[in-house]
Amino acid sequence: MIDLFSDYENRKHDLLDQLIPLLRPIYTLKELEALRIELIPRDILSIHSGYGFVNREILETVLGNLLECVAPGSHNASPYQLLGLVNSMSEVADQLYVIISQSFLAVKDSHQLSESDIADLAVEITFDILSALPRLKNRAFWNRFSSLKDPAVWDAYLLNLCKDNAKIMEIDLTTQINAAIVERNYHLYQDFLKAHKLAFALDYQMQLVVSTYPGWRVLFYHDVAHQLVERGSGSIPVPLLPRAISELAGRYYQADLHPETRIGDANFFDHTHRGITTGQTGVIGSGCVIYPCTLGGLSEKVHRRHPSIGDYAQISTDVGIFGPVIVGNYSVIGANAELYGFVETGQYCRIGSSVVIGTVRVAETVPGRIILGDHVRIADGTIIENNLPIDLIIDDRVHIPARSYVINDGKGNPKMA
């Protein structure tokens, strides 16, 4: 077994000298004063678990420390762990280096890397992650900011401070939040609140989100796991560890996000404790609102088999989307809806509650797609099926009334059955 820390210290200090100037500008003085990193003694850090892979308690601590790096004060608040930026990053580097090394060592018989190669690779990946902290911190901020779309951030305490609750109910807050996200300029929303004499609300709401909302945390866990598997062309993805991170996130936050799912930023995952599932080949854009749902696969083959969700889409509670479904930008999928197979929606589609849209395979015949144009409206309880090899196309701005049953007329046009 390799001595994980042999020849590591000298390399680490040189790399830290390059890292710290990159990181210092992303932290305010207030954040540096709040930053707390939990120490793990090296003799504990290097303890093997199972087949040599890092144990879950250590992994939980490392992830908590990384979370602290992107949102200081949000995870570890002990006054005895104030280390300063350099010592904090040094400690986090040690922890990352060991768990990444152990991930490769646990599967060393399946590749041609020597233990020396693994040590070098672990150093490279460790500092790749730490160098990505400015990007990860920015993503974590916008995921928190997107959580302001939840009307519950106007809680009883905050409403008690407001003089005119009726005015708040009349304001279109989500449109203003989305405008700030599009520009990546939260000051737009800040100025909007100020114009309505509600500027005092923002700090409280952001504190409420960072302290109590799980969605942005599980998205950060996913960001770390995704960074470990998506390392660029020619690079070696880290084995075991990304899946262990997603499993740990699922255990604590009940959101099972596969580490290879591609997820944008500024997303609000609400009520994750009721379960959100994504798959290996899935895609979620930016600015989305995702309630408890399943974005799953249908095929057992190794190809694209999971949904792609566009930007600023809303996926409501208990929705099931299965297979290579494409949901267009700004579309809304209502509660209990189910989409499966070769289905594509355009932009700004609104699919009502308990709607079922899917392609049906008959014998060996591969069905054509169901393609919804832009601004299509499908009312509650409707069923749309296509079992013919020709695509079923529903044109832009078509409205389908509630509880309709729509099939392919044989020429690609919708027919009420």
Largest beta sheet, briefly? 9 strands, mixed
Specify Rg, calculated over alpha carbons: 24 Å
Helix coverage percent = 25-40%
Strand tally is 23
Low-pLDDT sequence parts: none
Described by the principal axes of the CA atoms, the overall outline is: flat
| Spatial order of the strands forming the largest sheet | 1-4-7-10-13-16-19-22-23
CATH superfamily of the domain at 278-416: Hexapeptide repeat proteins
CATH topology of the domain at 278-416: UDP N-Acetylglucosamine Acyltransferase, domain 1
Determine the mean pLDDT: 93
Task: Outline the secondary-structure elements.
Blueprint: H1 8-23, H2 29-34, H3 42-45, H4 56-70, H5 85-105, H6 115-131, H7 133-146, H8 156-161, H9 165-170, H10 173-183, H11 187-195, H12 200-212, H13 215-229, H14 241-253, E1 255-256, E2 262-263, E3 268-269, E4 276-277, E5 283-284, E6 289-290, E7 293-296, E8 308-309, E9 314-315, E10 319-322, E11 326-327, E12 332-333, E13 338-340, E14 343-345, E15 350-351, E16 356-359, E17 370-372, E18 377-378, E19 383-386, E20 392-394, E21 399-400, E22 405-408, E23 414-416
Parallel strand pairs: 1-4, 2-5, 3-6, 4-7, 5-8, 6-9, 7-10, 8-11, 9-12, 10-13, 12-15, 13-16, 14-17, 15-18, 16-19, 17-20, 18-21, 19-22
Antiparallel strand pairs: 22-23
